[in-house]
Design brief:
seven-stranded antiparallel β-sheet, mainly beta, globular
Length: 724
């Protein structure tokens, strides 16, 4: 995490932190337009003595702190406490990047920026030499000529896309134009002759003002992949697509030949290819049909079904064909260990998949047994597609199985795009312990009254690091998810290693009072947050741990003391939901437990419950909501049937609802410019007066503000409501 403020004492290009300072800014909301309100969280021991000046620094060159001091205009805070400050952003001529300076008697000034671009992660799509197997997906690296996408916040200047700057280690600078969709993504194409090596990447304004550039980050440029695979034809191995001939041996023979060649593209002519047994695709082998309507593989109804009908460990793919089966566990599966040497590098393109454990006329006893097994497993193991590891692509597919449509475990760099994903019985899609994921332009819908939605989760099954992060979800449509927990989307995965005080925090080392419950899990990248007491609102991730000692990703700006309460839980970091559509569900988007720097922007829902954020003690861990923003969303008029214990929760309108349950907390939340029609409500509830710290409810359009805006009086000192 890069802190957005400093005292004039110590700073670096990758982070900004206080050294021996009495005050600090931890986080600043954004994007913020002129006239809207800025929320900043931090530590302000003498809030009533603070003075504030604000300046536009977008066109400035040189040190932005000096520009702020010289050109800043004085602004009166709308609300200030010991942990947050809120003020209207003045209109100084344009949208763009601003900075502010806080002054207190006998202290060095504290500076922070507003709308400074932040690149959270990069994703590249690199082309390859085989037209049937397009390229690779890379996180924080790219090949020359690749399509490079940057994700984060405030990536535009006055609504326009920023320029992308690449600087080589020798100092050569390349400026690339980009396009954007909203403030959360930039897209560019790298030059085809870009030399391999390490580059520094920045986002800069078109005016060239260096003060408004993003923090530099390293990106590795790779040499292009020039692998050429042989082409084989399945007909040459005795296959017959007449829907009766058993082609199992033909496939196995073709796989032996392809493996001997070091890999191949296996072309499957038009036809209907029956297989009596499952098939396992060797590494670097890709099955390509003529089209989903022309080439089909189909499997029998088996009891018990194999672990997967089509499987492979890594570096395999399927394209332009249909897969049909009866009873199944997985239909298509990779190795699920998530390790880059044995998993990943999988392409699934233009597939039509249909699988049903209840096809034909199963006896009631058989149907009941299969349904019971499925219900007890909550759909786990009954995936239409399950994948793991780096470099995954699922696009232009139409996927329907008995239960879960798609499960990705330990994914690192994944694209799920332009698919129709049908969730079956107790069917969740799930992206578990994954990072660098792009999910866009999909239609995701429930099929039947037992169908639900899905989750981004942190359940560890094979020792993967306990974090899920960097997921961009845009332009998807979710519908008809009323079974099970009836959530179109939820973040999930509780548990925790520690909650309690720290003894000391010298630099990046944090010494806890007691030994956390580390167990055998990998806590690399997990969340360490201060949820109460001195320094509340700060968070870091874990680099390493041993006994009571934790090595942090960066030192806390304000060191915790004996009043501080530290939580260590799986991290859920940097989820962006942009311009998605939700219809008929119990809840559209729900952050259940831990949420850190998530953005929910320009989504709409009808009869889908609305948008929830819940901070609580969950499955043994204290799970906070930190720096979450709900911006420009639309709750359409319509009733909803919410999920509740034993089905007891009554029907009601949709809502934006925030709930804080002790000892957890909601810290630094913005709810701005949302439209709630009809009886929809905006609600903030806390069972503790310290459960909400620094919340801005700004310019939301609520049909009945007196009745439909509900904020607990006990937290009114920490919540600012504007223009309802």
């Amino acid at each position: 995490m890069r802190l957005l403020a400093i005292a004039a004492t110590a700073w670096c290009t990758c982070c900004v932190r206080i050294a021996q300072a009495e005050s600090a800014v931890f986080w600043v909301a954004g994007p913020v337009r002129p006239g809207e309100t800025v929320l900043a969280t931090g530590y302000f021991p003498k809030p009533q003595q603070i003075s504030l000046i604000v300046a536009n620094i977008e066109n400035a060159a040189g040190d932005w702190r000096s520009v702020t001091s010289a050109k800043g205009v004085r602004v009166t805070p709308l609300k200030i406490t010991g942990t947050s400050i809120m003020f209207a952003l003045p209109d100084l001529g344009r949208d763009g990047v601003y900075a502010f300076r806080l002054d207190q008697p006998h202290q060095a000034p504290v500076y922070a920026t507003v709308n400074l671009p932040e690149v959270w992660w990069t994703l590249a799509e690199s082309s390859g030499t085989n037209p049937d197997i397009e390229g690779s997906v890379d996180v924080e690296s790219a090949s020359a000529g690749a399509r490079l996408r940057l994700f984060g916040r405030c990536l535009t200047y006055g609504g326009g896309a920023g320029y992308i700057s690449l600087t080589s280690q020798s100092g050569k600078n390349i400026i690339l134009k980009s396009t954007n969709q909203g403030s959360y993504e930039l897209i560019t194409t790298l030059p085809p002759d870009l030399a391999p090596g390490r580059y520094s990447l920045e986002v800069r304004p078109s005016t060239g003002g260096s003060a408004a550039a993003s923090a530099p980050r390293v990106i590795q440029i790779l040499a292009p992949d020039e692998t050429h695979l042989a082409n084989l034809n399945l007909a040459e191995f005795g296959a017959k697509g007449d829907s009766h001939f058993d082609n199992t041996s033909a496939f196995k023979s073709a796989f032996v030949k392809a493996a001997a060649l070091g890999g191949a593209v296996l072309k499957i002519p038009a036809g209907y290819y029956f297989l009596s047994q499952p098939i396992e695709i060797p590494p670097n082998v890709f099955l390509v049909g003529e089209s989903p309507n022309g080439t089909a593989l189909y499997f029998p109804d088996a009891d018990p079904a194999p672990p997967a009908w089509v499987s492979g460990h890594h570096h395999f793919g399927l394209g332009n064909l249909a897969i049909l089966c009866g009873n199944h566990n997985a239909i298509v599966s990779s190795d699920m260990g998530g390790k880059p040497d044995v998993s990943g590098h999988i392409r699934l393109r233009n597939l039509f998949i249909r699988g049903s454990s209840f096809r034909g006329h199963p006896a009631p006893e058989l149907a009941a047994r299969r349904l019971t097994q499925l219900m007890k497993s909550s759909g786990q193991g009954y995936e239409a597609i399950r994948l793991s590891g780096p470099d995954l692509i699922v696009e232009d597919c139409d996927i329907l199985g008995t239960s879960r449509s798609l499960y990705i475990y330990g994914g690192h760099g994944a694209i799920v795009r332009r698919n129709i994903l049908h969730n079956g019985i107790v069917g969740w899609y799930d992206y578990n312990l994954s990072d660098g994921v792009l999910i866009e332009d999909n239609m995701i819908r429930g099929e039947g009254s037992l169908a639900s939605g899905g989750a981004y989760s942190t359940y560890s099954t094979g020792g993967e690091p306990k974090r899920s992060r960097d997921i961009y979800t845009a332009n998807n449509t979710y519908s008809d998810m009323m079974g099970f927990d009836s959530e179109a989307f939820t973040s999930d995965g509780g548990g925790g290693a520690y909650f309690g005080p720290a003894l000391q925090s010298p630099g990046r080392t944090l010494l806890l009072q007691d030994v956390p419950k580390w167990g055998k899990d990998d806590w690399t990248g997990a969340l360490v947050a201060i949820v109460a007491g001195h320094g509340v609102g700060q968070w870091r991730t874990i680099k390493s741990w041993s006994g009571q000692q934790v090595e942090l990703s960066d030192a806390f700006g304000i060191a915790p003391d004996t009043t501080s309460r530290i939580t260590i839980v799986p991290a859920q970091l940097h989820y962006i939901f942009y311009h998605n559509h939700f219809r008929s569900a119990g809840v559209a988007i729900q952050f259940y437990g831990t949420a850190v720097e998530h953005i929910v922007a320009d989504n709409d829902e009808s009869n889908a419950g609305g948008f929830y954020a819940v901070a609580k003690r969950y499955a043994g861990g204290v799970a906070p909501q930190l720096n979450v923003q709900f911006l420009d969303n639309h709750g359409r008029e319509g009733w909803n049937y919410h999920f509740g214990p034993n089905g007891t929760t009554p029907a009601g309108p949709s809502s934006i609802k925030v709930l804080s349950l002790p000892p957890s907390a909601v810290i630094g939340m913005v709810i701005r410019n949302n439209e709630l029609q009809g009886e929809s409500t905006l609600e903030v509830h806390s069972q503790s007066p310290t459960g909400v710290i620094g919340m801005l409810v700004d310019r939301n359009r609520i049909s009945n503000g007196k009745h439909n805006l509900q904020i607990d009086p006990s937290i009114s000192d920490e919540v600012l409501v504007i223009n309802q």
